[in-house]
Write a structure and sequence with these properties.
Layout lengths: L4 H16 L6 H8 L5 H5 L3 H25 L4 H18 L1 H7 L8 H23 L8 H20 L13 H23 L1
Helix pairs in contact: 1-2, 1-4, 4-5, 4-6, 4-7, 5-6, 5-7, 5-8, 5-9, 7-8, 8-9
Length: 198
């Protein structure tokens, strides 16, 4: 089945974003890249930001699907969480413009983007909660712990993209290494807390 025009426009916008950042994404160039009339985008999106919100929603949905697949794999909770964080890093480093778009500032959101973001966030929080119940993460506010993991991933990716974090360079680590370091420290903390209680 041939892709729908809306999907073609989203794909074209994502490609342009990858190649030249936000400035490269114009509705005229998107329609040209998608092989449709220059008026076609306006039948599906109110403006450029609405189109970009659809790109961001698609990325969040893809990330959430990756998390869900890991959750369904029934691996050890720490392995699931590590894999999820590593997938997060791989996606962000592979598509830095999409990463910055998704987690940038939105002046007007869309229901599609809000739902995709909430869905992927819920799955991530579920992975964190499972790891807490298994004793490989400290107990406590599950959302706060998920935010800590995200903050480390985001910071590590930003540092790597700007050349301030690299194996054999600044920081002596990759973003994946820092994910592993954080999970190890959190596991040690969780184990110590369990021992103190017993």
């Amino acid at each position: 089945m041939a892709p729908k025009t809306r999907d073609l426009l989203i794909s074209a916008a994502a490609d342009l974003l990858d190649q030249g950042g936000l400035e490269a994404v114009t509705l005229r160039e998107v329609s040209h890249r998608a092989g449709v009339s220059h008026n076609a985008p306006y039948k599906h999106f109110a403006d450029k930001e609405a189109l970009l919100a659809a790109v961001a929603a698609k990325e969040m949905t893809r990330l959430g699907s990756t998390f869900a697949a890991l959750e369904a794999d029934h691996s050890a909770p720490e392995d699931m969480l590590r894999s999820a964080m590593r997938e997060y890093v791989v996606w962000a480093l592979s598509y830095p413009a999409r990463f910055k778009l998704v987690f940038g500032t939105w002046t007007t959101g869309t229901e599609e983007l809000a739902m995709a973001a909430e869905s992927s966030r819920t799955i991530l929080i579920g992975l964190v909660g499972t790891a807490q119940r298994a004793g490989v993460l400290p107990s406590g506010d599950v959302e706060r712990t998920a935010a800590l993991l995200q903050a480390v991933v985001h910071g590590a990716v930003d540092l790597a993209l700007s050349g301030h974090l690299a194996i054999g360079g600044k920081g002596h680590a990759s973003p994946e290494d820092l994910v592993d370091d954080l999970l190890r420290h959190l596991r040690i903390s969780a184990t110590a807390a369990t021992h103190r209680k017993s």
